[in-house]
Amino acid sequence: MIKVSGGTKVCALIGCPVEHSLSPAMHNAAFQHLGLDYIYVAFNVPPERLGDAVLGIKGLGIYGVNVTMPHKINVIKYLDELDEGARLAGSVNTILNRGEKLVGYTTDGLGALRALRHAGVDPAGRKVVILGAGGASRAICFALANHVRELIILNRTLERAVKLADELRRVFSFVGVRAGLLSENVLEDVLKDTDILINATSVGMKPNINETPVKRELLHGNLTVFDIVYEPLETRLLKEAKSVGARTVDGLWMLVYQGALSFEIWTGAKAPVEVMREAALKRLGEKE
Ligand SMILES: NC(=O)c1ccc[n+]([C@@H]2O[C@H](COP(=O)([O-])OP(=O)(O)OC[C@H]3O[C@@H](n4cnc5c(N)ncnc54)[C@H](OP(=O)(O)O)[C@@H]3O)[C@@H](O)[C@H]2O)c1
């Protein structure tokens, strides 16, 4: 049972919708575990109310905020300062209220990097293929660009992948980045000598759990396959990757680590990652 006092610090999620978010369960479990006098709640904020909601952070003295879809880009114009990572990626998922100033951060990409490292996979010097060129792929690509040897972005809509690759080349002077169409021919060509495959599309997500972005025959045992989809926890892609002997990383690790990094920005305490994952798993189970 969470104890709430007059001095309890409030953290919050703003997004639309937020009802199914795992973040309240994850953060409240972490606060409780460390005996911190904080509480985390979720606010459903429609796009036309975003400015009012951000004003409310200062007005009410809300201590820390997570920002989720559809506000990660639009929230920037209401903030006072941006951390370097958020500025480069053009996206904010975490706000720290410093009293006079609201500072924006992004922990999505670093969360993905931590998830890989947790699984014992260091992307430094590796060849990585990432599927998708939406918001999540963008965050991951920005976090990986400084580490990997080669990054190939494949997307259903080629122009989005080309645009993202151009941006990475410009921002990081990263010459090892290429874009391509997400097709069987291209996958067959690039996956043979790839070390890490990341699915950052929504293919395979509930309710379409029988879909996969890469057919089993193209997977191999030297791959690490990281699927950022976490509903279901074991996607068809991950199941088939396991069956060919590949190492697998599920999307809940990314969610947990992006949350852990936000937690650390707000509290300055080391996040209890295993406690957060357990709470998120329990909440996922309750939803099913
Ligand atoms: N684990 C985590 O912490 C975490 C965090 C963020 C997101 N996610 C998950 O990641 C997924 C993507 O999220 P997002 O925010 O990046 O979404 P988004 O910005 O809407 O991007 C969606 C991406 O998926 C591609 N796509 C969608 N349907 C497709 C299909 N049928 N075939 C091929 N490609 C398809 C899109 O391609 P086009 O450009 O061609 O439309 C685009 O690249 C979602 O499932 C989300 O739940 C997980």
Spell out the key features of this protein.
288 residues; alpha/beta; Rossmann fold; 2 domains; six-stranded mixed sheet; 10 helices; 39% helix; binds NADP nicotinamide-adenine-dinucleotide phosphate
Q: What is the share of helical residues?
A: 25-40%
- What small molecules does this complex bind? NADP nicotinamide-adenine-dinucleotide phosphate
Low-confidence stretches: none
Q: What's the CATH H-level homologous superfamily of the largest domain?
A: NAD(P)-binding Rossmann-like Domain
Described by strand count, sense and barrel closure, the largest sheet is: 6 strands, mixed
Radius of gyration: 19 Å
CATH class of the largest domain: Alpha Beta
Indicate the structural class. Answer: alpha/beta
- Mean pLDDT across every amino acid position: 96
Globally, the shape reads globular
Q: How many runs of DSSP E, i.e. beta strands?
A: 12
Which fold does the CATH topology of the largest domain refer to? Rossmann fold
Strand order of the largest sheet: 2-1-3-5-6-4
Number of domains: 2
Cα-to-Cα separation, first versus last residue? 24 Å
Q: Specify the number of helices.
A: 10
Instruction: Bin the strand percentage.
Output: 15-25%
List the helices and strands in order: EHEHEEHEEHEHEHEHEEHEHH
